[in-house]
């Protein structure tokens, strides 16, 4: 699959790159994509929720009424879950929602997501670029040149570039990651994916195994 290489103003440079069919043109595996996205979202959960149980409630321990002769059910503690202000039965406890997936499945999920985006013609390749200083204005100019300033976009860099990352941080609709940070969720979440030319080799090397 051939894609034209653009400059940061959105104009063709006259060069083309060949995207590997083993990464960008496979038959998508929807279940692998589902599992990888589910794991990503599960890992975002803090799991710090907690409700007080009977033993953790502050209250008197005296027996609140006599055992017999009241005509109602016996009751021994004001902290009982049946009373207002008592402990909660089977309430939430802190827990880790994460779960494991094997590397081959995660690799298949990312290739499936990239293939779906390639099929939708939502992938662009831009020549390598850098900023001398972090400046949001410069990053917006790049997005405008590529025609994606009002769309959710994902910019994939070859190596971590601090100035480019900092320049994009104030923009809600745009995300910048290095090739090693690319995830299935971020691929699917973006309307357009922009690969910096230097990122393709690493991505194809990692995902074509």
TrEMBL record:
NCBIfam families per record = rplD_bact (TIGR03953)
The lineage's top-level taxon is Bacteria
Enumerate the residue ranges of region (Disordered). 45-77
What family is it from? Belongs to the universal ribosomal protein uL4 family.
| This protein's GO CC annotations | ribonucleoprotein complex; ribosome
The entry's function note states: Forms part of the polypeptide exit tunnel. One of the primary rRNA binding proteins, this protein initially binds near the 5'-end of the 23S rRNA. It is important during the early stages of 50S assembly. It makes multiple contacts with different domains of the 23S rRNA in the assembled 50S subunit and ribosome.
Q: How does it assemble?
A: Part of the 50S ribosomal subunit.
GO MF terms, alphabetically ordered: rRNA binding; structural constituent of ribosome
Q: What is the lineage of its organism?
A: Bacteria, Pseudomonadati, Bacteroidota, Flavobacteriia, Flavobacteriales
Could you tell me the keywords of this UniProt record?
A: Ribonucleoprotein, Ribosomal protein, RNA-binding, rRNA-binding
Task: Tell me the GO BP annotations in alphabetical order.
Answer: translation
Q: Which InterPro entries match?
A: Ribosomal_uL4 (IPR002136), Ribosomal_uL4-like (IPR013005), Ribosomal_uL4_dom_sf (IPR023574)
Q: What is this protein called?
A: Large ribosomal subunit protein uL4
